[in-house]
Amino acid sequence: MKSILLLHGPNLNLLGTREPAVYGSLTLDEINVRIQTAGKEAGLEVRCLQSNHEGALIDALHDARNWADGVIFNPGGYTHTSVALRDAISAIGIPVVEVHLSNVYAREEFRHTSLISAVCKGKISGFGWHSYWLGLMALKEILGD
Length: 145
Prior knowledge:
CATH class: Alpha Beta
Number of strands: 5
Strand order of the largest sheet: 2-1-3-4-5
CATH topology: Rossmann fold
Strand content: 15-25%
Largest sheet: 5 strands, parallel
Helix content: 25-40%
Number of helices: 5
Radius of gyration: 14 Å
């Protein structure tokens, strides 16, 4: 069975109460359960981690190269600012799919730039929690059987 890291960045622990009109009403735990369930149905093991700290996210990416076949990553606000996360993704040698709950291109101009997209296999945004599901399905296809 292939293993996937579902990695959530800063402020995503507040889902369900943080700007539900933008991010939806599901909590992070509810999203994790949905993606883990979808993973089982697809023959994938999904492990979930959230951190508000850039270094912890980098450590999780480094650790993932030892056990994960791929990563679904919502870097939150670090998307637009973190060269260090970009370098970590580039260094680990496993496919990463960038995901966002909201359509970042329909929001503030600064959200239109992602420092990590260039080192990811792809980017999915704007579909609420389904962005994670789409990322999972994309990784399943990328990884093959």
